[in-house]
Amino acid sequence: MMPVTLAVAERCDTCLRIGGASRGADDEVERFRSAGRAVVEHEAWKIRVMLTQRYGAMIFDCDGVLIDSERVACHIDARELTAIGVSITAGSLASRFSGVSYQDMYRILEQERDVRLPADYAERTHALVLAACEAEGPALAIPGIHALLDMLGPLPKGVASSRHPTG
């Protein structure tokens, strides 16, 4: 089964790429271009008129677009990995694995460090990240995202995730 974002992307005619470093977003842009579909790249402040006049809906990625959960996840993963002997910083995780699935990140780290993460590592760490995000609450919102969502008015909106629907 493919991640929800890839399944949704197969039905989209255009990809809107708004700044910020993300290997996953860059890969998605390349998929669109390779398939001959349009890619629109703009700074966030330039998109209101274009979006509301050209498109029927907007689907957002969550991490780094709506909320800053990647920051939280990197700190928790760095702490948890270091605790089991895989010494790494949150900054290193962010720079190397932004836009990369957790599954792929863990596989790469296992190969590079010649270790095997505990079987429950991903599930346990994900629960810690969810709890930390819940604790931060509204402070996780990306600056300006509320204004952007307000600018889009009645345009239908959705959130896509690269996580598999089954977790």
Task: Give a quick set of tags describing it.
167 residues; mainly alpha; DNA polymerase, domain 1; 8 helices
How is this fold's topology laid out?
Layout: H1 4-9, E1 14-17, H2 23-34, E2 38-41, H3 48-54, E3 58-61, H4 69-83, H5 90-97, H6 102-113, H7 121-136, H8 145-151, E4 157-160
Uncertain regions spanning at least 5 consecutive residues: none
Order of helices and strands: HEHEHEHHHHHE
Strand tally:
4
In spatial order, strands of the major sheet run 1-2
Major beta sheet summary: 2 strands, parallel
Nearest-angstrom radius of gyration? 17 Å
Could you tell me the strand content as a percent range? 5-15%
The percent of residues in helical segments reads: 40-55%
Distance between the termini: 12 Å
Overall 3D form: globular
Count of domains = 2
Structural class assignment: mainly alpha
Count of runs of 4 or more consecutive helical residues: 8
Rounded average pLDDT = 80
Give a structural overview:
Helix 4 (69-83) crosses helix 5 (90-97) and helix 4 crosses helix 7. The chain folds into 2 domains: 4-63 and 143-160; 69-139, DNA polymerase, domain 1. The strands form 2 sheets. Strands 1-2 form a two-stranded parallel sheet. The longest helix has 16 residues, at 121-136. It is built from 8 helices and 4 strands; from the N terminus they run αβαβαβαααααβ. It is mainly alpha-helical. The model has no long low-confidence stretch (mean pLDDT 80).
